[in-house]
Amino acid sequence: MALEPEFWAVLETMAKERRISLAALIAELDTKRGESLLASFCRLSALAYVQQKASNSKKRKPEAV
């Protein structure tokens, strides 16, 4: 599957965080993708992961006084 290096990096981070192999993560995404193309679903999953991390990071930062 052809993906840009940035997406592979996020997918690798996702797999490491869950303590599974990259291949296992891709297989899991493959079962969840429905009619979507696997590469597109992987990109969207990586994007959702990054957005969730960014959102969680903003919630944790204390506001300046």
Overview of this structure, please?
This protein is an all-alpha fold and 65 residues long. The chain is 74% helix and 0% strand. Helix 1 (5-18) packs across helix 3 (38-60). The protein is elongated, with a radius of gyration of 14 Å.
What is the topological layout?
Elements: H1 5-18, H2 22-32, H3 38-60
Strand content: under 5%
The H/E string reads: HHH
Percentage of residues assigned to helices: over 70%
Counting helices, strands and paired strands, the structural category is mainly alpha
Domain module count: 1
Distance between the termini: 48 Å
Shape type:
elongated
Helix tally equals: 3
List keywords for this structure.
single chain; 65 residues; mainly alpha; elongated
Could you give a quick summary of the protein structure above?
By secondary structure, the protein is mainly α.
